[in-house]
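name: query_chain
kind: protein
chains: 1
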Amino acid sequence: MRDIAASAKIGENVIIGKFVIIEDDVVIGDGTTIGDFTLIRKGSRIGKNCRIKSYNEIRTNVTIGDDSSFGSRCTLCADTIIGSNVDVKYGFVTTTLDFKTREDLDAGAVGDGAIVGVNVTLMPGASIGKGAMIGGCSQVRDAVGANEVWFGSPAKFHKMIDEL
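structure:
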């Protein structure tokens, strides 16, 4: 069973798993794979040749660039922007609710070529720069610069990628 809105635009050679819901005005690029039990909310854009595993929720107006991949059980809040060639492991979550002020802030962004480890949370207004690497079980609360390695909870700068 699949529930795909009539206004969704699905590219060529797209593979859609079982029990997937794709809402209105979603665009999915050629060659992309969507795993079982995934929900893609209205207005989202998923690039070409993406690999999205099972049990993911992609909320309203999310943008994912070409050739990006996601493990299972990721939740991308509304308006999150993910670049191209991004590798996201299992359990990645973005959020907009600032618990201190009880206000919604800007959704996070992940730059091209970034690598995000398992069970990472991107807090409201935080971002991950191009080519950066985030260690597993990290909570990103700040802007991570291009080609930087961060990890921890809260995540802190460790070193530059070229120092690995």
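note: The domain at 1-76 is CATH 2.160.10.10 (UDP N-Acetylglucosamine Acyltransferase; domain 1).
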